[in-house]
Model the fold of this input.
Amino acid sequence: MEDGDEVVEPIEPESEDIVNLTKRLGVDLVLESNDDWKIQEIGFDGVERYLQPETFTDHVGKLARKVEWTKLVGTKSPYENSKVDPEDELDDENVAKGGLNEELVTPEAGPWSSVAKYLHESLNQLNSLLDVISVTKSTDYMKALTVLDPITVQEPTPETISTNRGTQWIWKRRALQEAVQVLDMAQKQRQRASSNLGLSADYMAHLQRTKFFEELREMREIWRVRKVGDYICGDLSYHIFGWKYDTPAIFDISRRSLSNNMENLSIIEVSVPKDLARRSMLAVSIVQDDIQSGNGLFRDPKDKKYTYSYRESDSEKVKLLHWKDSLKWAQNTLLLRDVFKTICTDAIKLRNRLSIIRDNVLLIHLFDDYLLRFELQWFPFQTGEIKEEGDIYLNRVLREMIIGFECTKFIRPQFFCSMPVTHLPEALDLRGCGGFNTAQIEERAVRSRSILQRMLDVASHRALVTMVSDVAERVSRISLDPTVQYRWLNCGRTTSRMMFNMTSKDFEMYIGTISSVRSVFFANISSDGVEVETKDGIKMKCQRDPARVMYACQYAMCCYSVTMVSTMSRNNNWVTPFQTMCANVFALDERGNPAPNIVLCNQAATRSILFVFHVGMEPEVFVRRFIVNEETMKPEEHEWKKLCYSRLHGATLCRKIDALLVFLRDH
Amino acid sequence: MGVTWVFEAEQTAKSVERLLESIGGDLHGTFIVDVTPFNPPTPSSDYPSNVVMHHSKCPQSTFSICPKDTFKKSPKAVCDRGFDLILSKLSSGLIADNAGKIEIIGNEYSLYKDWMIRVGTATQGTTVKGVVVEIEYDPSIIVIQCKDMMIEFVKSVFNKYHETLPEIFKITEKPESYTALDTMWQYLGIATKLRKKT
Done:
């Protein structure tokens, strides 16, 4: 109920009475001028007492009184409706809400039903309008235009024209037409050429051009070529990382005008820088500095053999060379020149080693009397074979080191998250966070060694290896029993290992697994010196002296001989073997030199045999009567009698031992 | 880098140096340790203060410890020297307290190659606060291995300070590695004590 100018009270069809009333056509209208409260009474003093209008609850109460409740609910039903069986409700007539009734009564729509219908419709229309607006606002399906907006046709912008598919097709067609024209022209020319057999000037020029470009392409497979304006130039420098196309190392490329008598020359003419117009070679060798080689170490200043340099008079000859050769030689010259310069600079920095540089020859002290010699040789810039001088192995190693140096990145590349360019090795990256102290930082800061230092190591090792193979050859040649065989176990650039194997022919069956300790020994070679090592781990340092190496090998042979004697005396097929009384591998002779010895005794205990093996000399054999009782012995009866070794029966040591043991078995 | 024991000495640095030279120590060089507290601009209990330290033994490192009640609860970190530069950018949260900075400068002696003893004078600003001795046993980084030997060493050389052990010696029972941060924790404790001293 709303207060307004017109107070309308529609009738609510709640009770039965009201439904049965006749349908009225009009509506009760009560017009009041304002919504003053009704005056109940006016007091004598002029105070008006108002009749308070009904509140909602009052109004509901008034209506509720009009309803005949007993008719609705029924007298029999209990107060609480919830326990009532829903079936019972059907007995009541016209229950207010939700009741099934046989008599279907069309509900009266009421006087405002059409208004409601129109309002509902307009509400629906508004809802759909709202939907449309929201759709247009959030999507691109429709664009809202005001009534006054002119409808413009969008002109195609240059962008849209270019991305338009139609235009692209047009361009493709135009390009294809151009290609067709070119091919047509080519076809015509080819026909003309085939009919003329290619003698027109045009065709010759065309041939030359194609030939030029083909050869240029060949050249570009190996060399860096660049076009600057109208000139084509190439680069002779060999660095992978660093500046390229540096002025001193570029060569010009031009087209040679072919005339008829130069058929075998290439159409590309290159002009190599004049100072690189020679062939070079860097020879490395190990030389000995003694009186005889005095003048041979350096070059004779009057000798012109390796000192070629470019002269203007040679320019014609140079022009006749094929670019493949001349560029290769020129780059090699550049490379070797730079390497020699670097090596000389490094040599000057090495303060502890003496070095002399003169006339493109560098001599640096290796060890003892030996020097390492680097010589840069120049040869004329023409075809022909150049004899390789110096030690071929060292030449190759030097070449490999140069290339390895060029390929090594000393600066770490930048990574995905940009990191600073740094020289420090990766192992030092966490030196701050790891709390490394100074000693640890130094340890991890591995610095690269120069080529010269590495060459020195390799060359000294090579000299020592040559020396040891020499000694091994001598040892194996002179020793008859035991026979010594040697082989390389490990050959490296700065360390190698050689194994010596000793055997006695015809007596191998006596060598069991026990004796393998004595029958094998090794020589370890580093770049500083040689060390002879026995299988049970005893090392004999031989520095760089070949005599000492020989001595060590011979000592090992003596130890082996002792073992042979003891093995043979035990494993004899004779019924009565000999007894080893004592054996000493570390014994010394009167002069203090090592002389392993062994004393045997026969089974009958009548004789003692003493073998003394001196290093590098014939063994000595002594015999005496066996001392039965130390206290009662008479020294003159038990003197050692030396036997003449060379007159013993048998060719080798083992055979002599065999024969001797047989003889002394029972005597 | 070995197990280290840092303590405050009650004698002058010179007397300690003379003592070391008498038992055969060789002067190795100089060292410097500095301890700088960093505080928030307005003192508050929510934001704790941080202490940044450097030690010349680890020249590329910076140590940062936020001291709380116990050793295990204090956040500690080792970083490279760039940390100092970063800290200057964080001046809205942490400001260096240069008045409270303590520097320990002195000499280091090496004894028979295994022991490194550093003796330094601790100064705060211009006032000298005390003398600090650091004993490092290089070969071992396991505390329980060399704890007893170090106590014996201190007893035999100084005869005075061997009773108060550093915290790390007391709390470590298992064979754990000793790190540079443990040394700096000891320095932190000593620096705090020195700051309170007048």
In short: Chain B has five helices and nine strands. The first strand of chain B starts at residue 3 and ends at 9.
